[in-house]
Amino acid sequence: MTFAVSGTNVSATITPALHAFGDATVTVTVSDGTNDVSRSFALKVNEVNYAPVLADIPNQATFESLAFEIPLDVSDVETPNDQLVFTSSNSNPALIGGVTFAVTGSSVVATVTPKALAFGKATVTISVTDGVNTTSREFSLTVARTFNAPKLGAIADQSTAAGVTVSVPLTVSDSDTAMSELVFSASSSNPSLIGSVTFSVTGSDVVAMFTPAAGASGTAILNVVVSDGLNSASQAFTLTVGGVAPAKLTSRIVGGNFQVTLTGTAGTVYLVQKTTDFVTWTDIGTVTIATDGTGVVSTPVVGEKLFVRAKKQ
User: Fold this and answer.
1) Domain C-terminal end among 225, 241, 257
2) Which of 5, 45, 143, 206 is 20 to 30 A (C-alpha) from 220?
3) What's the CA gap between 193 and 175, in Å, rounded?
4) Residues 40-61: b if buried by 16+ CB within 10 A, e if exposed
5) SS3 of 59-125
6) Number of structural domains in the chain
């Protein structure tokens, strides 16, 4: 309490203690040095609810799907931190999966979790209330894009006959890149065994097609790679190509010609010969087995009884 005297006017200024409230009897005494006069009065200091104090929150940055923590500087004159209520809102609900709060004593930590695979920017608002007053702070959140590597499932070992293409369905996924934009490739431990490798992409279905080189047989370890341009995944498997099976030979008379049809491994070349006595063999011509597994050659019919054979070249 302080006093101010101006002429015959005297004023008393009463200042309650910080954050104190309640009832008190106040006694004012005036003295001329010899005599004292006192008067008392009742003073009631009403309670005032002070809003919680929440310090500014700096702008934040993280990567997609990566949660992070923010320590909050919070205090309240009347209410302990563990009795305060914390909430959040944001300008981009598609980006933010949720915000949770952990209070331990006076320590308060907010955990922000972006939605899976989401990236972009949002303004996040953190609010704290004591049930009467509310204090809020905003900050900017940037969630950076992360390019996740493609996924390629294991590939079982394969086998095929010489010259016969083998189709291998691939299990492929990528959370960031469309299937049609992925790049597929393959390498072989035995390049002379593989004639070509192609990939077919239809929607989410991917099929790799391996065609052995003409007439080749053996074993190779093939490594299939899928890339999104930044990251890649690979799987290896063993391809076994069997030897060229003997061609099957049939014949018939077609339009005055003796027609010989061979059924065998695509790409294989045969020399077809004829004889009437099994001693002298005459070439009819060469035949390359087509992709449908057949090849045809003809020779005119001259009345003799013919025998034919095919020799792999």
Assistant:
1) 241
2) 206
3) 35
4) eeeeeeeeeeeebebeebeebe
5) CEEEECCCCEEEEECEECCCCCHHHCEEEEEECCCCCEEEEEEEEECCEEEEEEEECCCCCEEEEEE
6) 4
* pLDDT tens per residue across span 114-158: 998 899 999 999 999 999 999 999 999 999 988 889 999 999 999
Label residue 160 exposed, middle or buried (CB < 10 Å: 0-12, 13-18, 19+): middle
For residue 270, CA distances in Å to 118, 215, 260, 263 come to 61, 11, 12, 11
Answer yes or no: are the C-beta atoms of 130 and 149 closer than 8 Å: no
Query: Tens digits of per-residue pLDDT, 56-102?
Result: 999 999 998 899 999 999 999 889 999 999 999 999 999 999 999 99
Q: For the chain, give the number of residues.
A: 313
Q: Is 179 helix (H, G, I), strand (E, B) or coil?
A: helix
* CB 265 within 8 Å of CB 244: yes
CATH number assigned to the domain comprising residue 79: 2.60.40.10
Tell me which residue has tokens 């593989």. Answer: 194
